[in-house]
Write a structure and sequence with these properties.
Helices cover about 35% and strands about 20% of the residues. It is an alpha/beta fold. It has a single domain (about 1-160, about 185-210), classed as NAD(P)-binding Rossmann-like Domain (Rossmann fold). Helix 1 packs across helix 5. The model has no long low-confidence stretch (mean pLDDT about 95).
Length: about 240
């Protein structure tokens, strides 16, 4: 499958790439900053529709993983709305225009508020607080709309606190040495994205992606495990053992 991955140069994007390689997909990587890679590279902003149309051309699927830099970009709505919201809308519009029928949206577990329910069930509609999470909610709303209107298969992955399970580092270079209820390996996010793309029975569906075992109930990852046959490579049990 020919897959466009946006935000490919970011911490999460780079960590997802090995999963697509393992599944033998052909990658086209898009990022505003070009970088060295054995895969095809397209430099451009997702906020520019012409750049997006060019990046989408010839693809079978899109994985939307771009994000305005956190926390610096969230002092006002200009940049996060351009990148997170407008960029996602551009990609979904181009997908419909060019008949690309499979999309995976990297959303966030934070789009559902702990003030609403004790357990974050995968069917819970997005509702949250704060500018960053507002843009993630709008991504999901836009994706669901385009799934209905254009017949695009969309899997929205509500991911947790992203770290590298091998190095135990997060995107800020900090070592994770304490338990956290949302720890998620970035490679596991890539694996779930691949599993979603390889199914033909998804219309619009939410998949919680959190690695720790307690997430089976708290964040309803049981749905993701059963629906996709997914088992996290990293469940961070070693942190629980140390606590």
């Amino acid at each position: 499958m020919r897959v466009l991955l946006t935000g490919a140069g970011g911490y999460l994007g780079r960590g997802m790439i090995p999963a697509f390689e393992h599944h033998k997909h052909t990658l086209r990587l898009m990022d505003v900053h070009p970088f060295e890679t054995p895969h095809e590279m397209v430099a451009g902003s997702v906020a520019d529709l012409d750049s997006v149309r060019n990046a989408v051309r010839g693809m079978d699927a899109i994985v939307i993983a771009h994000m305005a830099k956190n926390p610096d970009a969230y002092v006002d709505p200009t940049l996060p709305f351009d990148i997170n919201v407008k960029g996602t809308a551009n990609l979904l519009f181009a997908a419909a225009e060019q008949k690309v029928n499979k999309v995976v949206l990297i959303s966030s577990g934070g789009v559902t508020s702990k003030h609403d329910v004790a357990v974050h069930h995968h069917t819970l509609p997005p509702k949250t607080k704060g500018l960053y999470y507002l843009t993630k909610v709008l991504q999901e709303v836009t994706a669901e709309h385009m799934s209905r209107e254009a017949g695009i298969s969309v899997a929205a992955l509500r991911i947790g606190y992203i770290v590298d399970g091998e190095t135990r580092l997060d995107k800020y270079g900090r070592t994770v040495d304490k338990p956290h209820p949302q720890l998620t390996d970035r490679g596991d996010v890539g694996e779930v994205a691949c599993l979603c793309l390889e199914r033909n029975d998804i219309t619009y569906e939410v998949f919680p992606v959190v690695g720790v075992k307690s997430a089976i109930t708290q964040y309803d990852t049981l749905h993701t495990r059963q629906r996709l046959g997914w088992t996290p490579k990293y469940d961070f049990a070693w942190l629980e053992a140390q606590s």
